[in-house]
């Protein structure tokens, strides 16, 4: 059987290169929209909670003063508490520091273990005396301490709980409901929240998260559990609460160079013991003495000892060279396909809108290079932009290299003029005979353009933003920068056949040109970020290597999300709107330059494989020329030595980078996990989200190295092995498919992965879309990966208030779709509103501003779309979209003069503007009709004056005018959401809920409105992962398949 090999044998070489509401209560339908009652929320399995968590309130207070043996004899076993008296559970089910473990351990046993770092109830003198008293503990005391710590962890987790998957219905909805209830109870108990904040010394679990909350003490024990061991890391996550330390001294271990953290052992005021290598180090005098106030500092108040995440301002010793300035170079395609797409004007609009928020200081530089079959350079130092053309792309050199990058602040006016007057109208016309003809060709010299950009930026380093719209087709053939179309649309289904291995070469680069160039970029602190807008095949598997190995990011817009083979004008317009909004976020997000990241761990834990976009310099060090808050990494670990001598294992990630203002900083994240010897404890501490994410990254590597079929089999066998391991320690009371409570969602997620674009077989799938899905799974943060794997399905037809509660997500089955319902499907990249046929007319009026279901414009109704485009009187563009996306109109004039240069090897070019009505290159029209109430759905706009007047025929004209005016003043807070924002409670709540989903999301999704009879309804139905389709199991059939393999 095909399985993921153990870490000792897998990948012998290193890689070469929306917040949920705290309330889970849904407001039921109050009868406003008569329909069938909503299904009641699934009941919580209280037996599991009561058995998993004891009630500390039932323990007598004096029992904590007894020794452990007396407590076991005198204290009766706690009875399961009633549901109303269940204790408030913290969100983090394991203690994050040794001091938290000690709270549930008798005092006599606490003296047998290594002393805690923090004791907030004791003064500093007593604590230092206590620390000094236990210095030099013998080996027996250490073993006893380890045993007591494990007992404290067992009090938190109790014993293993089992779930019969075949008997559980709506297991995902129940899991979400239980999580929300725990969060709600936690928020109601403010005292517990304060205690958790004091005791939670590990970094945020969204920053660093392990696949299991307890570490096996041996490699054989890890092998028995059949669980993968790894760390998911999001090191540059935006967090304003991270303390910044500007002291002149940074305390580190002299042996392993670990940064001092909350889990070190303080021996006295002058010495501390490293928690990774256990070396004893001296405390610098500057760490405990304030020279300004001439007073001693209480060492326990230092931020380094109270926060799991910390950031230091680095000193000169951490600098190989002076900090580099922020340099931004934009390399964009201007071929005929780019002109037809019309994205350049949206790029100019995004740059103008974000020009004040681009990170940098007075040294920041910016430049622009365009390419078709030639290279186009722009000199922005003169009074007017100078456009220079290089037709010879076989011998690339830089004309006026000093003028191609200009200082952002000193040349601000010239840059704005370029963005307003030159870029929106580029490429321009130079043919006097045909003023409407645009000078552009179909060939793309992407490779030579990247070579020129690298030469320009390599002396200093910086960021290259590459925008691609077609397959590279011009350049030196011997270099490998010219690519051929490797995808035959007629062979997509055949290549997706399970028995066909022809798909694997298409997932790997055709040439190594872009990889080699990426490695050179990484060596010179240059990162390339790729934005791919090609609606046709662009060989993303090959071109993406330029971003993958240079530490960049990849964004692909070619997939329409509707399953259509080609993109219609409305889909293109939606894509350009997304591109503009994403570009605004991209330009203004935080950025770190010339970064390196190292992961340190306790002796006995080895790093096996890195996952993400970077270049590996050594076994534990990765190079990141640029680091951004939207990228995350996975690290697969292995146990090389027995860990019996340790009571905890620590991991520390250190990110050294230069911020946009030229300041060198070090961001440090630390977590600590206990070591256990019981297989039950290991199974009970599993994290199914983290495990799913790590298995996904491993499956992506397997797909590229072997085949997608091998990766699918390995994912299935991972579930079979996990259930088999569980059977070794749990005897089921009756026949069924039992699994650990903390891994109960793993089979559901595995089935969703098998139907995901990255791993699905038997369905026609574009190669670029499959490659992009794999890249997403390798580099996205954990919470977005889980949404990408298992989307959220929300019912919108039930009344709810997003400020108090959010709709409960449903399991992805069409059995949960009600005929009179309206549903929102969030797949991370796409948002679908699916409208069933029997929706109440009042809901249609409140949300869509129509009276009949058939009046809702549907994206799949091409005939209706054509009629809407032909009828200018009845359909118009909404101001909320046009105002947000239309480039400045001052740039659209035909009298702009540009300087041009004529030099050796260059052709002069008189840059002229295009006509305002030049087809698809123009953004949507800004014409509005203030006397009508417009509706936009899927890009279609419908006038509803007649309906409004009919519905309000008993109200006088003045009131109608006032209501219409108020309604027109409402603007959607989400400019990409083409849903009318009406002046009623239901519409406002739905928009608030959508805004809440998208609030903290870095890149915005496309938006689609589909009726039940839509021709594109498959784009919604394909995400019903729990149902059977023509090439995959349903969820119940998948569970039966697992059970049959277990019985073989």
UniProtKB/TrEMBL annotation:
Signal sequence residues: none
Bias (Pro residues) ranges: 35-44, 75-84
Regions of compositional bias (Polar residues) in chain numbering: 18-33, 90-105, 941-951
Annotated Sec23/Sec24 beta-sandwich domain residues: 592-676
Domain Zinc finger Sec23/Sec24-type: 250-286
Pfam families cross-referenced by the UniProt entry: Gelsolin, Sec23_BS, Sec23_helical, Sec23_trunk, zf-Sec23_Sec24
A single GO molecular function term of this UniProt record: SNARE binding
Residues covered by region (Disordered): 1-138, 880-959
Residues covered by the Sec23/Sec24 trunk domain: 323-557
Membrane topology recorded in Swiss-Prot or TrEMBL: Peripheral membrane protein
Protein name (record): Protein transport protein Sec24B
Gene for this chain: SEC24B
